[in-house]
Write the structure tokens for this entry.
Amino acid sequence: MMENAVNIKINGFDYQVPAGSTILEAAHMVGIEIPTLCYLKEINAIGACRICVVEVKGARSLVAACVFPVNEGMEIFTNTPKVIEARKTTLELILSTHKKECLSCVRSGSCELQKLCKDYGIEDENTYKGDFVNYAIDSSATHMYRDNEKCILCRRCVAVCDKLQSVSVIGANARGFDTHIGSAFEYGLGDVACVSCGQCITACPTGALAERDDTQKVFDAINDPEKHVVVQTAPAVRVGLGEEFGYEMGSIVTGKMVSALKMLGFDGVFDTNFAADLTIMEEATEFLGRLNKGENLPLITSCSPGWIKFCEHYYPEFIPNLSSCKSPQGMFGSVAKTFYAEKMGIDPKDIFVVSVMPCTAKKFEAERTDHSAVAGLADIDASITVRELARMIRKAGINFRAIPDAEFDSPFGLASGAGTIFGATGGVMEAALRTAYEVVTGNELEDFAAFSAVRGVEGVKEATYNLNGTEVKVAVASGLANAKKVLEMVKSGEKKYDFIEIMACPGGCVNGGGQPIVPASVANFTDVRAERAKGLYKDDENLPLRKSHLNPDVKAVYDEFFGEPGSHKAHQILHTGYVERKKY
Amino acid sequence: MYRSHVLVCGGTGCTSSHSGELIEALEANIKEKGLEEEIKVVRTGCFGLCALGPIMIVYPEGCFYSEVKVDDIPEIVEEHLLKGRIVKRLLYKETVEAENVKPLNETNFYKKQHRVALRNCGVIDPENIEEYIAYDGYAALAKALTEMTPEDVIQTVIDSGLRGRGGGGFPTGRKWSFTAANKADQKYVVCNADEGDPGAFMDRSVLEGDPHCIVEAMTLCGYATGATEGYVYVRAEYPIAVQRLQKAIDDARAYGLLGKNIFGSGFDFDLFIRLGAGAFVCGEETALMTSIEGNRGEPRPRPPYPAVKGLFGKPTTENNVETFANIPQIILHGAEFFNTMGTENSKGTKVFALGGKINNTGLVEVPMGTTLREIVEDIGGGIPNGKKFKAAQSGGPSGGCLPASLLDIEIDYDNLVAKGAMMGSGGLIVMNEDDCMVDIAKFFLKFTVDESCGKCTPCRVGTRRLLEILEKITSGKGTMEDLDRMEYLCKYIKENSLCGLGQTAPNPVLSTYQFFKDEYIAHVVDKKCPAGACKDLVTYSIDKDKCIGCGICAKNCPVDAITRTEYIAPGHKLASFSIDTDKCVKCGVCVGNCKFKAVIK
């Protein structure tokens, strides 16, 4: 007998399940999947779409399994003709307000509505054809668009924007049949204080929300003989991309990814992890500098452009605390258009830098050109998400699973495990500490578990380390709602830190807004953040090189070009500035 | 001491027919005659007989003057108040019998009424706390706080048999006991004054006419359930109610009847008003609480019920205004006072807002179990213009219709539900032979479609598709398959919607379909609207032999659709007219203007 268990019957069979479970959870435990659309565990339990209805003996009407708790003796029926008919009608009603462009839709094949219609055998998608509200597509934001004609009003986007990110720039506007998702006063997403994190996109069950597709721009560059097109791939891409091609969550597919990129025709395939190592060199130097001077502490990381935009809109008072280091994406672009251009003897104008990112905010970052390494040129010419890269690979007819592994090109092909773990929350902090420890103490770090307190998917993590007699208090936050908590504690004086890592997306880049979309039916019962992070940490463990400052490619860049970390040249090229942005 | 009191209705109905100006004129005239020491003018709450407003009652005679105009005031003051001669021409005619003035409570309108919730409405000055106290106000609170335990209070409410007057009819005492049983650092009492049913205004009347009874009842509820804070959620469209309630709260605080250590008992309770923006769905208890919390008013799934996790996540008891209005009386006079009225499972009285095709539009309070016929024919005075009763819609857009065959139904919660209607908040809209029941169903459904919050699919999309089917039927394009689909969608929406709004939205359709199926079929098969209400199915024509050729119809036709023919009917001198149906907009002006009944629908 389980403690705190209740006895229930599902479809006539007896089960014992934990008390407090919802019907949905109880059914899942015993191998019955009840369909959902609006439900996101702990984030959006609102019982709105009604696709999960089941019959409960004695209940007046059908009940929503996603929110209804089980109780002792409950008899549940998940597949009666009445239930199936109700779900079918709900789907047909949703379809009657849905722009059914399934053949050309970016989410064809990964659309949760499409899957359910198939599962439930919807024969006529026009059963309830009637009035249809027309909406213009909102493409005012840099990173994405919203097509409300495809929206099914599940509100998952609203919930993640509010609960995970505490940004809350979208919500339900109007009411009844005219209800639609939008911002206050019907402002476009580009006109409100959206941080571009893209969490709404990965939460969307349909094609109502999608990243701005920049793949054609990349194909055009590749096909332009005048252009030298180089590509960089962020740490978390190697652990996300495989899912697009049927690999198990958490699989590392670096070799095939590099191979596919080469087959796509890029002139140089490089690793953003190299740039991450470079970032550590600059940022660790910056940190130690500020720590010595006791100035602008806590230092807060600047790798996550969603976080940067959040800070600029909502916490401008922390702008002096932000690290002035460009993000790894930005550092790579800067080095590509300066050091690399010089080394290769190519006019920076002719170098086209593509970055593959697990992130939509990187599209926004790519368009911040006020601190470009080469005046008049963007550091990054196109930033695409993991989903867009997968689309390119499919379009090019590359059989991802069948191709052999390949290695990154030189001179930015070598990277440390410290760079790899940038993709998970706590990774930047750990990478910085590995380097800082050795730089400050002069001792070799042998026990990599020393910094394990900053690992894991918890939203806020804290630790205190002793760097040669100096106590360093650090905090790590992922998900902007958690970032907000930390910042508020710092503001109120409740907490004092020296160094804070903030990633906009919960769990860090592994769970970024540009990663493959995981259907809610999987995400509700799997910790996507943890599964993908596991892959990265394993990759780190298997690498011979695990400390940024030992990366020979990084050393070479300093020796040949920048001199030393924090040098004037490094500042000119690898650092940036921020602006205060309005909320309204 | 005054020798005479003039009570003038200050409810919303009479206020909009200028009772405020009457009071000004009265006071000016009284002053002019130097009678201000002898005669007192009191602005009260609603008397109930809104159809005859503005209303004024002069005591001690008990003269009920109706439809009083400012111009009548000098005469009333001069004749009645100064010389003691009743102004008979202004008396409500029901109160005049063989030259004598009959007491008001012997008139048909008031005779069968029994006022518990409305007992002070039209009797006291709602803005004067001392008048409320003089009428036993706050005596129940004093009794509870000094002589009763919280458990005693709940037991009395349970024993009284009081059920929620807002819609569902859940036993009030049990609701209180659930909240009482949950331990928490903070609990709340919420009063639902978001009255939204079209045509229902009993809650407004209570708040306008007797606001202190809500303050007292909520304080009692707080004591019984362990709550120390209460919120009244009231529509911003009820400005008089809001202002009087705020005054009542302020006065109660000043008298120590709200706040810390009430009656020295150690019990603290305070009350606040929150204004709603008039969304019907905010009458649903979870949506209401979401709105008080400052969010978009949308329902949330239950469980958890408010008694466990309500306002701001804390245990909360929510009742509507009329439910609370009964509480002080129950506590003061005991459960038996209440449970001896009514039927087996529905105790006490119920206030109905009578509206539609009925002579005495207004508010009536009758014991549960009173028949529909008594309400419509005796109290309501029947249907105007000699028309026939067709049906009464009970429970507003969530309720259903009761046809003539059910006129003798004893109205209580369970009888209404058994017939597909519901008590709801007590709106009772009477329909006559000119009303098309399909059109009525469409009207109510249109209301819920407009008021749907848009959260769940069945209500957001389903009700809209249902409405489209009804529109198809009333425009003559419906098929028998549409009727099947209509019935299926009704059941689907009831079974699948998130909250009470959606779950009851199809009721008007289902109940009219149940009792007036032939009307639906006439629209679909014969393409006819038997009541002649659905414009698309009506054609106007002129009986050329009845038409005398006067041309009044043609002169008044707004679209010049009527022209003279060359035909002169036998016995007539002028050529008759005919209607061009292509031009006709079916406004019906010609029908009303033809004295010879020559225009046929």
